Amino acid sequence: xxxxxxxxxxxxxxxxxxxxxxPGGTAPIEPGDVPLLSGGNPQIAKGYGxxxxxxxxxAMPGWKSAVGKRLDELIERAVPDVYKAVKWNSPLYGVxxxxxxxxxxxxxxxxxxxxxxxxxxxxxxxxxxxxxxVRYLDIREDMALDEKQFSDWVKQARQLPxxxx
Length: 165
Prior knowledge:
Elements: E1 47-48, H1 50-59, H2 63-78, E2 83-87, E3 90-95, E4 99-106, E5 110-115, E6 135-140, H3 147-159
Antiparallel strand pairs: 1-2, 2-3, 3-4, 4-5, 5-6
């Protein structure tokens, strides 16, 4: 019978993390080197810990990077033992071994904060979801973030069972 065609090597599933050095060099990858997906969402390789989240935030376009940095600071202050990761091109925040309670995603005109058990928060965040437990907070450029309310939601969300993703 005919010869089998040799299989091509599998393509890597992930691109190098934005915190790694450039091939052949020692300089870290700059935020402008990170590809942006539709809507301006940074394409950051899956990774756990602070470094991939910081790389994602640094790569957020325009005003969104400063807001992302502030959100990260508020989350860290509200939940000092917060566990971080980037999965599906979105930073996730949770408690190690207990699941994720919050995620961030960039869109063209706003940042979407997802509270995975947001329906149980008091008051409930304003953005509804097709999923009964999820609630959103959309942050736009001209909007003042109520940091006290946001921090309170983060503290409440941390106390609820997290999402396993």
